[in-house]
Amino acid sequence: MLAPLQQVIGAVERRQTLPILGNVLLKSSGGDLSLTATDLEIEMVAGVSANANEEFQTTIPARKLLDICKALPEGSEITFSIDDNRVSLTSARSRFALASLPARDFPGLDEIEEKQSFSISQNTFKELFDKTSFAMAQQDVRYYLNGILMELSPGKIKLVATDGHRLALSESEIDTGVDEDKQIIIPRKAVLELSRLLDSSDEKAKCILSQNHFRLETGKLVFTTKLIDGKFPDYQRVIPVDGNKVMEVERELLKQSMSRIAILSNEKYRGIRLSLSSGNLSIQANNPDQEEAEEELQVDYKEAEMEIGFNVTYLIDVLNVLNSEKVQIKLKDANSSAIISDSKDKSSLYVVMPMRL
């Protein structure tokens, strides 16, 4: 009971307008028990084998049920007995009576009409989300940025996220089954839930696209989300193509240096200055208290000297999701965005806008 409950609990809002949205729908049929949770934007259904003497459906408070299941001894069995407005749970010597609400009042998402479907291994899909989701906007008035763009083209899937200051892009070659490019925008909450639900196995997940919904099916879990109705900006225009100054550096060294220098950066703006000269990178920060920090690194750089400022948090976020030994940073001048990528694998790239310091 615990595993499927933990899968669907993410759809249950802590503060909801309708009391029934705080409940989970239990439905028994043919020896299976399905658990459904929704917030009217996303819906999750997970199944578990159960021994039921008759078919039933009811709704009970989701978080209370989760807390009870967590608190019971591992491996213990739960017996449910259902009355009109109460559900009794019995396990060994424990007994709980929970208030229930009628299943007929439980809201469901509209039926979805399949327009397109494809299969992708869970670990590939999870990696695509993990490499891009940090760059999504949060509560931006440009609502189409509060999510991730999924672009399907023949033989390729691409995920893109941007908050207007930085952009993350990651792609993978899979058989998408499409003849022409197709774009959908998956909302932020759904992205975070998908990252949590997908595991690191090679097991396939089936993805279904309809006019307004995206659905993912894995094993006994069905995840459905409404899509954001909007036009994602043309991300190709944001990616600079004329960066002619290339620096390569060990990723872990750069990340540790930046983390140290960031301690004395301005707490609000988080600005740091990068000064590049042949074979050398100097990272500097200062703050309104007249405190300053500086560190020098040996890097692979043979171009003209230059200085550029960045928000250090944005750079560290990128270095955290890249798992390569070395990173490559392409620059043009102090007013142009930088492109950061793995020095060998170009399936993911990151664009970070500069800061005036």
Task: Considering the chains and any ligands shown, give keywords for the structure.
357 residues; DNA Polymerase III, Chain A, domain 2; eight-stranded antiparallel beta sheet; 17% helix
Helix- and strand-based class?
A: alpha+beta
* Annotated CATH topology of the largest domain: DNA Polymerase III, Chain A, domain 2
What's the SSE pattern?
HEEEEHEEEEHEEEEHEEEEHEEEEHEEE
Instruction: Assign an overall shape.
Output: elongated
Q: Calculate the terminal CA-CA distance, rounded to whole Å.
A: 55 Å
In the CATH scheme, the class of the largest domain would be: Alpha Beta
- What number of structural domains do the residues give? 3
How many helical elements? 6
Chain-averaged pLDDT: 95
Q: Give the strand order of the largest sheet, numbering strands 1, 2, ... along the chain.
A: 4-1-2-3-15-14-13-8
Reported CATH architecture of the largest domain: Roll
Radius of gyration equals 25 Å
Instruction: Give the proportion of residues in helices.
Output: 10-25%
Uncertain spans, ≥5 residues at pLDDT below 50? none
In CATH, the homologous superfamily of the largest domain goes by the name DNA Polymerase III, subunit A, domain 2
Portion in strands: 35-45%
Question: Would you write up a description of this structure?
Answer:
The protein has 357 residues and is of the alpha+beta class. The chain has 3 domains: 2-105, Roll (DNA Polymerase III, Chain A, domain 2), CATH 3.10.150.10; 116-237, DNA Polymerase III, subunit A, domain 2 (DNA Polymerase III, Chain A, domain 2), CATH 3.10.150; 239-352, DNA Polymerase III, Chain A, domain 2 (Roll). The protein has 6 helices and 23 strands. The strands form 4 sheets. It has an 8-stranded antiparallel β-sheet. It has an 8-stranded antiparallel β-sheet with strand order 12-9-10-11-23-22-21-16. Strand 13 and strand 14 (213-218) form a beta hairpin. It is elongated, with a radius of gyration of 25 Å. It starts with a helix and ends in a 5-residue tail after the last strand.
